[in-house]
Amino acid sequence: MHHSLDAIRHKIKKKKKKKKKKKKKKKKKKKKKKKKKKKKKKKKKKKKKKKKKKKKKKKKKKKKKKKKKKKKKKKKKKKKKKKKKKKKKNLNLNLNLNLNLNLLV
């Protein structure tokens, strides 16, 4: 009788082990679902493309620098105008004479 009880216990242990193995397989299936979640993380990489747009903004800053150069040119022109104003007093008489001559011709 002892042998038969031991044999029965042994079979019960084997069945429990098989059940445990089946449970482990189910856990592996759950891990596969987690991998699908990782694919969702790849969508976050699209946000990195927005960072490239920021690089375009840097190009706009370069354009602003060009505008500053234009302002410098304008300042130079103003200086020239001041010089012309001094000459204009003398030139006005000459221009008037030239205009009068042109009208006569």
Automatic annotation (TrEMBL):
Molecular function in Gene Ontology: DNA binding; structural constituent of chromatin
Source organism superkingdom: Eukaryota
GO BP, sorted A to Z: nucleosome assembly
Feature: compositional bias, Low complexity: 91-105
Biased composition (Basic residues): 10-90
Any one cellular-component term (Gene Ontology): nucleosome
Region listing for Disordered, in residue ranges: 1-105
Name of this chain's protein: Uncharacterized protein
Organism expressing this protein natively: Zoarces viviparus
